[in-house]
Structures are given as structure tokens and as C-alpha cells.
Protein 1
Amino acid sequence: MANVLVKIRVENYDKWKSMFDKFVDDRKSKGSKGVTIFRDTEDPNLVIILLKWDELNSARKFYEPRISKKIPQKGGVIEEEIYFFNEIEKTSA
């Protein structure tokens, strides 16, 4: 299982979340298996998104235009960092 961790700072969380939710079907059709969203306890506009993907290549293909800045940021994203990880181990605690 591949994972993508996206760290963003947004102008307004609710505005960003509304835009993010519009792309559920697009993410699913391209291999996303689920999303967990975290917000900073002191700065609600600092958001971490952890996405599970069927394959790392699918995730990279989905995010490549954003990494290369071929598509503009939407939903009021001010800053964005994207990291790709392969899951290697799970433990019980």
C-alpha cells in the first residue's frame, strides 16, 4: 500500500474542505483507497492529509501536475508539500 502525505496551509479550512470534497470520485477512480485529514491544534488552517493509494505510481501520476505546478492551487491553498511513502510495517502499538 502506498501513502501520500500532503501538508498544506490554507486561507480558510471550510473553503478548502468544500473544494477537496468535490474530488472524491476523481481520487477514487485513480486509485485512492481513503483519506484521513488532520488539523493543527493551534492553527486550524494548517492541515495534514494522509491518503492511501493502491499503487505508488498511481499516486505520483495523480499529484505530478501539482508538484510541477502545471495546475494552479485551488481552494485557497497557500503552501503545499507532498511526500510519497510505501508502507513497510504495522504494529499493534
Note: The chain has one domain: 2-86.
Protein 2
Amino acid sequence: MWEKDLIGKHTYDYYYLMKRWKMDELNVVDMDEHLIKLPVVLGDGSRHIVLLQFSGPITAPAVRVASADALRSEEIISWVKNWLQWDRDLAEVAAHFVESDLEQLFFAHAGTPIVKDTDLYYCLMKTIIHQQLNLKFAYTLTNRFVEAYGTYEEGVWFYPSPDRIASLSYEDLRSMQFSQRKAEYVIDTSRLIAEEMLDLGLLSTESDETIAAELTKIRGLGSWSAQNWMLSGLGREDLLPAADIGIQKALKFYEDLPAKPTPASIYERGGRWAPYRSYAAVTLWRSIET
């Protein structure tokens, strides 16, 4: 087991990261020890269990990274930095919102990072599964999905592969309380990936506009799905899912409005939040989380 300490240069609220990661009961998080245990799959498909242990105040954070394969340590460190967005100066983001309509929100939730999923394919599947469902049942379905078709290693769940899901029948997912359409969307999209008609790694290098155009060609994937994949999978910084109910509720609560604002009005005012609209979105979501 090798270890390496990363010293943060900027404010980073790792408590929020842990709390957010713990929302999924399949994730391994020890709030008392400030520890997260992650399933990491590198580019060659090799699997690694990576431990992150945070320490220090959020204004001067540190994280100890540990894993088993010393020969892959540099790749894993690079992966961890990318996943955490460790070198991103969140104070620079917050400064953009000074004297804006969200200034007090960013002051109250300083150092809020974009919390990403660890796997691009699973992030897309989760986006499909979660759409148009309440959060509790959405997590129930994704948990069933992972427990049925993923792999459990040393206390950590590795997510299902596209090939595994592509081999299923729609009825396999219907038996887990997936709707017929949701089962079709999950399996048909997985088949596109398994048959190399959709390369998520290659797609991730494209612009936001190109990614949205490509994903929305796929049955079952709309603008909301594309934006959420780019935000939660890639950590893109300038996305605003204005149709998201959570963002609408957060703005209604924050500004004490008589009704939720419309997507059109959110998108219009969001122009002033660019180029950091994703941070506006995650901070709004955070403001109504319990």
C-alpha cells in the first residue's frame, strides 16, 4: 500500500464532498474519519481501490491518497486530482459572483466543488435512471442496478460495464421496477457503447455544444440528460440545467418568490453567471439539501 499527501492551495469544502458522496448508500464514506473509498478504473480497464482521507480546515485542506499498486501511483494521483478538481481556485469562482444576485449564497457555501461521478458510463446510466423520478426511488433503482450487475471487491462496488448491460433483455430491468421505456433507454444506449457506436471517452473531449448535440440524438436523452452528464461526469463549469426542479425550488426559497421561476427566466438571468453557471447550479442545489 502506497500513500501520498496532497496539500491544497485553495479553499475546498471536503465536508460537502463527503456528504454529497454519502447520499448514495453504495458509496463508502466515513464522516468521522474523513475517509472515502473509491472504485477507480484507469484507461486500460485496470481496477483500483483508492482511499482518500481529508484533513485540515477547508481553507487549507489536505488529502492523503492511498492504494495498492505502486506502479500506477502517478496515474492514480492524476485521476484523483482530476476527480476532485483539486487545483481549481474556487475563490476565483466566488469572486465572479460578488455583487451578483447570488453573492450571499456563495458566501454561505464557500468552497463548494462540483462533485463528479467516478465513471462516465455509470454517470450516463444514472442520469437516464434518475430522470423524472423522486430522488429516493431513483437511488433505489440505481442501487438495484449496481448490486445486480456490478462487481463487489473489498467492500467497494465497481459499476456495471456497457457489455454486461448490453447483454440484458428489457424484462431483466422491468423485473427491478424499471419502466419499459427506461429499460429500453438504458439497454439500447449501452448497446451503442458496447458496439463502439458511442465513445464516451472521445466525446468527453468535445465542446459542450457538440456533446449536447450528439447525446440528444440518442433516444431517451434530452437536454437535461446531456447537461447533467457533462456536469456530473465531466465537471464542465458553465452549464445551467434551468429545467431542473431543484434549481427552481432553490431560487424560489432563496428569493422568497411566490412561485418557482420558469426555466426561461432562469436561463435568461443565468447569462450573468457565465462562465461559471455550473457552480451556480451546484450551490443552489446545496442550499436546499438537508
Note: Residues 245-288 form one domain.
